[in-house]
Amino acid sequence: MEYIGIDVGGTNLVAGLVDERGAILQKVSRPVDRSMSDRALCRELSLLAEEVRLAGGLSRQDVQAVGVGLPGLVNNKQGVVVTTANMPFRDTPLRELFQQEWDVPIYLGNDANCAALGEYWAGAARGCNPTVMVTLGTGIGGGMVVNGKLFTGCANSGMEVGHMVIHPGGHLCGCGYRGCWEQYGSATALIRMTRQAMEKAPDSRLWALCDGDPEKVQGRTPFQAAKEGDATASQVLEEYRQEVAIGLINLINVLQPKVICLGGGISHAEDELLLEPLRELVERGSFDKRMPTRLVRASLGNDAGVVGAALLCKAV
Amino acid sequence: MEYIGIDVGGTNLVAGLVDERGAILQKVSRPVDRSMSDRALCRELSLLAEEVRLAGGLSRQDVQAVGVGLPGLVNNKQGVVVTTANMPFRDTPLRELFQQEWDVPIYLGNDANCAALGEYWAGAARGCNPTVMVTLGTGIGGGMVVNGKLFTGCANSGMEVGHMVIHPGGHLCGCGYRGCWEQYGSATALIRMTRQAMEKAPDSRLWALCDGDPEKVQGRTPFQAAKEGDATASQVLEEYRQEVAIGLINLINVLQPKVICLGGGISHAEDELLLEPLRELVERGSFDKRMPTRLVRASLGNDAGVVGAALLCKAV
């Protein structure tokens, strides 16, 4: 039996044909046209699912279920996309609309949850119970799989780990509160910290790496500079890792997962600049000194969302 | 069918005969003799279980299971008490020792987890999914029930919520790290804050309430003084509630429970001095503005541990 997973991103729609162990057999994608209505987008999703089904040479009956991962709040029970941040979905009855085109079981999931599920089924967290996924990107996303099932809280917006408060009264967050983890541990935060440090360090290698334009600093810039021996960048990374570690420590002391999978752009940094020092920092704050939680890099990249979406039917 | 639950506290051993809905039918207790060996204590537990069984007029066959809640780390799978803070248990094969006296199914649980389970079965959190219990006492304890099962992490020490870091680099905690929630939100922390504020306020009503001796300040003292209109005490409580709220916000944004049950001595404070202002503070920091999490006072008091221990067999 095969499954289809669709990852709805801000830039691309990606559909994958996935087997029951989480391997991707076929994959198709197309750019998102954000001017489309939510109804038109639902039709796009059904067309894309058809496309990947045909690419795999399957009949409709061969497909067990279709799962869709979206950047926002979904209600799988009702089959509705409640809200999305940068997409036109709002109280959209996605299941119903999709099934008008193709009457197959449809499952909906949040994208961070799908990524966690994908890593649990086929990635760096395979079979780990519980699995926690943390994505260091524009913000900080999170998901958890317990006994093979997604943990989503009582109203589908649990695991908003980026909004743990780690500096009460600190930086204002997009959520309206102050001091949230994602204001200190996201890629966005690292870029801000890097720019601030550059201003005070006219001789830093960071300037050359961004062509003298702080606006061009990216998440990988301080890692690049640190590798080249730049002291300013190394200092920035040290502070950044401490902020990331605080949130990880909180997750470990509350959830004690078997594994925390780090994803997002930042997670591609060299082990010696990110994972290894993070492991040390996190161990110091872990209440359980046996430290049974492993900290690893996510291994599926963007595919995690496709795999997780495809296997939502097993996890909800 | 009936169940027996035993709450092993630092001062008393309490055993209860509990029905399958969580009602306590009989209860017996005796003081703990801490000079006893772990083996002697296990024998005490079996004698106490016999005593409450006989008080209920039951035969051994009428008792479905015995559960024991302990202040420490347990391994229910192996039937072993791994460590306790102030008791002589250490790698104690409690199940085996108990069953030498009475061969009945034995379940072991951490006391904070048992309290969560008790409130879920028969208290203020009845049927709420997930249920989170937070105990504001000497430290801050926590427990969670998801789909009727205890959530204990991968190695039985999840939900150490008192060790979320909310002030990085802050007060040194007993766990060895700095800035843990329990250094700011426990009864111990409130007493410390009260004493510090008194030193700067020689006219405060707080002095009279502790007979002029700051050592006599208790968790309820600032609540009493605030009720009598003391400005210093009101100020202390405002700061204290902000600290408590930060940890609750973090739990809400990560776990999104249906209910957070506040227990421990502090939770007995008047609603207008604790629960009501806490609800307001917590709502501001909740990422999900629908705020589906209710904040309530635990209703079973010390009985929660007995009920939860008795029904461990249903929850592990």
Explain what this protein looks like in three dimensions.
The structure is a homodimer of 316-residue chains. The first copy, chain A, has helices at 38-55, 94-101, 111-122, 182-185, 187-199, 205-209, 221-227, 231-255, 275-285, 303-310; strands spanning 2-8, 12-19, 24-31, 63-70, 72-75, 80-84, 90-92, 106-110, 131-136, 140-146, 149-150, 259-263, 294-297. With 316 residues, chain A is an alpha/beta fold. Chain A folds into two domains: 2-119 and 303-314, 2-Layer Sandwich (Nucleotidyltransferase, domain 5); 127-297, ATPase, nucleotide binding domain (Nucleotidyltransferase, domain 5), CATH 3.30.420.40. In chain A, the strands form three sheets. Chain A has a five-stranded mixed β-sheet. In chain A, α1 packs across α2 (94-101). Chain A is globular, with a radius of gyration of 20 Å. The mean pLDDT of chain A is 96.
Structural class designation of chain A: alpha/beta
What is the distance, rounded to the nearest whole angstrom, between the alpha carbons of the first and last residues of chain A? 18 Å
CATH homologous superfamily of the largest domain in chain A?
ATPase, nucleotide binding domain
Instruction: Please write the string of helix (H) and strand (E) elements of chain A.
Output: EEEHEEEEHEHEEEHHHHHEHEH
Low-confidence stretches of chain A: none
Number of helices of chain A: 10
- Whole-number average pLDDT of chain A? 96
User: Major sheet of chain A, described briefly?
Assistant: 5 strands, mixed
Work out the strand percent of chain A: 15-25%
